[in-house]
């Protein structure tokens, strides 16, 4: 009866007689335990029932007292002890449960995580595997545990594993390894992620990219071939018309002359179109190889002015050239630059139907060369100025089209300017004229080796055996004068990451691309590379190009060349690479 | 006055013909050859005063013909104009390396070709 009231009472301890009128033996104990499991119980037994009392203690009672055999002193000792002991029992029980629950929680995580987890000790024995790792290796826990781990462990680094399964199926896993202490021992914790699908889709993308590149090359080759083939008949027609028009075959009447002039004009037009197509196909195929040399800009400007003089005069235009004296020796690709200037002057003539002046001028700014072509012609609206460098855009669609090409002129010019590391811009007012300005980097003699290496780098890129170029200029490089710039390395690294959208880490003065399996050339800057800003710009271009090329290379085995110092003895890039090959021991410390 | 002899080497008969027409109307004597091998034979036989030489030719290409003649003491004085549809700077370099005196890109103006021819033959 009393049991039913228990939960409403606050009791610290229960002294229980097992021989109650309505409940006997251990039943009473069990009932109380169920009702209030946390309250300690001391059994009160009779002399002949001691055996039952002992059973009760075994069943969870804290102690027992025998009727008539205890006094106050014993009671005062037994009861507090019983309470204290019970408190500890309850706490222990709680902790044990909590521990079990926690272990269960972690086990659920470890067993259900999709990443494989493996622990390998320093003797290369596997100490732990989770189900995802079993699935990844297609092996049972017992076949993996206590056996050697078959792949090299590289702590603090991401590596790729090629897992060859029994059915010849291959899986690729990305492994990251950390050193941890486990059961008092230093071990390696490896987490493995199945990246097979990702790799396959990457490969599919690469293949698609290769195919597209090939198609693009075929297209460019076709355009180039057709343009060349068309030139021969065009030459014949042009020659014949020219002879006719020069009255070599007899006098012409006015109508005949008029018609021959139309034919001749359209031959010119067709020739322009073909030239644009050829230029375009060269650019699109990335075939334009630059040849830098010392160039007399003043001479070139005079030459361009002379070339267009008669054409300008025919259009009632005055064409003048000015060049700063300091520009008699600049370092650039003269063929490219001349094409740029010719395109701009030819455009200025084309868009100045009402005569006026055209000025071609060049000046030296702080560290750039600015060449501009100014006309007093039709001008461009702000909208047109935005679009004028776009492919196939033609200014003033209502203009007499007979002299127009495909609208590729400024698009191609812009590409050429960019190839030379420069920029083109336009200022214009509708009806007042336009000013096209080309800004080129002023390349000093000291910078030539860098420019040349950039050209060489590109050459190597296309040889496909190298896919990614790493260059590090060290802190001894000078920057705008002779002040050492210790930040050059960090800045270059940032630029590399920005432009390639890849991650690199720095280790022992080397730049390591992440993931680290990509093949690359590594060059460390030497002591005498000046103009680091310009070099960084050039290399940025090269690295971007290489990043594009990289997608086209199927990477099977890592190939590291270098590091090699960039010496001041005028070595070319190819020599440096050869040196690096020979001194392959230099690759120590960057093993992958 | 003896007419100056010009050898035109081009495998495109129409091009050769228009050049011949123009130059003959200017008072030159022209002969035409349509391959590199024949061109060399004709040079040996006729000793022209000037050669207009296409790059793309059957049997021996224009650069080969040019190099051959320019390395021969007996013929190296003959001015050679290379004629081609190519405009790549590297091709121009190749032409100069072969020793050509001028390099004319197709399509070209007859007047310009005539200017070059007059210039060279009056100098000589």
Mean pLDDT of chain B: 83
Range of strand content of chain B: 15-25%
| General form of chain B | globular
By oligomeric state, this entry counts as heterodimer
The strands making up the biggest β-sheet of chain B line up spatially as 2-1-3-4-5
Uncertain stretches of 5 or more adjacent residues of chain A: 398-403, 455-489, 505-574, 583-592
Quick check: average pLDDT of chain A? Answer: 72
Task: Summarize the helix and strand pattern of chain B as letters.
Answer: EHEHEHEHEH
Task: List the total number of helices of chain A.
Answer: 16
State which percent range the strand residues of chain A make up.
15-25%
**Structural class, judged by helices and strands of chain A?**
alpha/beta
Provide the spatial order of strands within the biggest beta sheet of chain A: 5-4-8-7-6
Task: Indicate the low-confidence ranges of chain B by residue numbers.
Answer: none
In whole angstroms, the N-to-C terminal distance of chain A is: 79 Å
Q: Give the termini separation of chain B.
A: 15 Å
Number of helices of chain B: 5
Features:
heterodimer; A: 592 residues; alpha/beta; five-stranded antiparallel β-sheet; five-stranded mixed β-sheet; B: 124 residues; five-stranded parallel β-sheet
Describe the overall structure.
The complex is a heterodimer of chains A (592) and B (124). With 592 residues, chain A is an alpha/beta fold. Helix content of chain A is 45%, strand content 20%. Chain A is built from 16 helices and 20 strands. In chain A, the strands form six sheets. A five-stranded antiparallel sheet of chain A has the order 5-4-8-7-6. In chain A, strand 17 and strand 18 form a beta hairpin. In chain A, helix 7 runs antiparallel to helix 8, helix 8 packs parallel to helix 12 and helix 14 packs parallel to helix 15. The longest helix of chain A is centred in the middle third of the chain and has 50 residues. Chain A is rod-shaped and about 155 Å long. In chain A, 28% of the residues are buried. Chain B has 124 residues and is an alpha/beta fold. Helices cover 45% and strands 19% of the residues of chain B. Chain B contains five helices and five strands, in the order E-H-E-H-E-H-E-H-E-H. Chain B has a five-stranded parallel sheet, with helices on both faces. In chain B, strand 4, helix 4 and strand 5 form a beta-alpha-beta unit. In chain B, helix 2 packs parallel to helix 3. The radius of gyration of chain B is 13 Å and the shape is globular. The mean pLDDT of chain B is 83. At the A-B interface, helix 7 and helix 8 of A face helix 1 of B.
């Amino acid at each position: 009866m009393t049991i039913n009231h228990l939960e409403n009472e606050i009791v610290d301890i229960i002294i229980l007689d097992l021989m109650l009128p309505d409940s006997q033996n251990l039943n009473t104990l069990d009932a109380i335990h169920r009702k209030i499991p946390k309250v300690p119980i001391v059994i009160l037994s009779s002399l002949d029932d001691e055996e039952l009392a002992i059973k009760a203690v075994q069943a969870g009672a804290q102690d027992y007292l025998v009727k008539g055999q205890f006094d106050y002193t014993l009671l005062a000792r037994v009861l507090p002890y019983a309470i204290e002991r019970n408190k500890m029992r309850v706490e222990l029980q709680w902790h044990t449960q909590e521990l079990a629950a926690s272990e269960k929680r972690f086990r659920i995580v470890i067993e259900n995580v999709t990443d494989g987890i493996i622990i390998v000790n320093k003797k290369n024995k596997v100490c732990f595997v989770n189900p995802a790792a079993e699935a990844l290796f297609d092996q049972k826990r017992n076949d993996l545990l206590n056996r050697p781990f078959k792949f090299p462990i590289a702590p603090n680094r991401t590596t790729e594993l090629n897992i060859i399964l029994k059915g010849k199926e291959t899986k690729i896993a990305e492994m990251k390894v950390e050193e941890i202490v486990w059961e008092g021992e230093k071990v390696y914790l490896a987490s493995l992620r199945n990246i097979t699908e990702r790799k396959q889709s990457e490969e599919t993308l690469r293949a698609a990219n290769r195919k597209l590149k090939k198609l693009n090359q075929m297209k460019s080759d076709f355009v180039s071939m057709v343009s060349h083939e068309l030139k021969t008949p065009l030459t014949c027609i042009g020659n014949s018309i020219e002879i006719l028009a020069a009255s070599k075959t007899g006098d012409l009447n006015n109508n005949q002359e008029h018609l021959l002039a139309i034919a001749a004009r359209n031959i010119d037009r067709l020739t322009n179109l073909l030239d644009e197509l050829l230029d375009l196909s060269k650019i699109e195929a990335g075939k334009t190889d630059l040849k830098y040399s010392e160039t007399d800009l003043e001479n070139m400007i005079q030459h361009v002015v002379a070339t267009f003089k008669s054409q300008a005069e025919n259009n009632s235009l005055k064409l003048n050239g000015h060049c700063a004296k300091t520009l008699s020796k600049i370092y650039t690709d003269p063929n490219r630059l001349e094409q740029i200037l010719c395109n701009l002057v030819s455009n200025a003539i084309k868009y100045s139907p009402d005569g006026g002046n055209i000025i071609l001028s060049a000046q030296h700014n702080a560290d750039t060369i600015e060449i501009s072509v100014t006309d007093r012609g039709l001008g461009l609206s702000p909208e047109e100025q935005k679009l004028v460098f776009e492919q196939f855009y033609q200014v003033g669609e209502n203009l007499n089209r007979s002299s127009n090409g495909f609208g590729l002129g400024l698009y191609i010019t812009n590409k050429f300017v960019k190839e030379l590391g420069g920029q083109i811009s336009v200022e214009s007012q509708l009806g007042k004229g336009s000013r096209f300005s080309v800004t080129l980097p002023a390349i000093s003699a000291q910078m030539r080796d860098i420019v040349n290496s950039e050209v060489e780098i590109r050459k190597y890129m296309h040889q496909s055996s190298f896919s990614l170029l790493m260059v590090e200029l060290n802190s001894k490089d000078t920057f705008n004068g002779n002040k050492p710039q210790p930040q050059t390395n960090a800045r270059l690294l940032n630029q590399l990451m920005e432009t390639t959208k890849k991650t690199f880490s720095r280790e022992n003065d080397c730049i390591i691309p992440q993931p680290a399996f990509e093949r690359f050339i590594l060059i460390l800057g030497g002591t005498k590379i000046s103009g680091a800003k310009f070099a960084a710009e050039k290399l940025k271009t090269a690295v971007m190009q290489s990043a594009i090329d990289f997608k086209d290379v199927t990477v099977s085995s890592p190939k590291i060349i270098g590091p090699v110092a960039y010496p001041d003895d005028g070595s070319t890039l190819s020599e440096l690479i050869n040196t690096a090959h020979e001194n392959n021991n230099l690759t120590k410390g960057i093993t992958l | 006055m003896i007419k100056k002899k010009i050898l035109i080497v081009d495998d495109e008969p129409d091009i050769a013909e228009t050049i011949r027409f123009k130059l003959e109307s200017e008072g030159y004597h022209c002969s035409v050859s349509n391959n590199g091998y024949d061109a060399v034979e004709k040079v040996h036989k006729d000793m022209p005063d000037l050669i207009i030489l296409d790059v793309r030719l059957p049997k021996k290409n224009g650069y080969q013909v040019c190099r051959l003649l320019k390395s021969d003491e007996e013929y190296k004085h003959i001015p050679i104009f290379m004629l081609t549809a190519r405009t790549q700077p590297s091709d121009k370099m190749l032409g100069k390396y072969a020793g050509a005196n001028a390099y004319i890109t197709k399509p070209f103006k007859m007047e310009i070709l005539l200017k070059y021819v007059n210039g060279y033959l009056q100098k000589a």
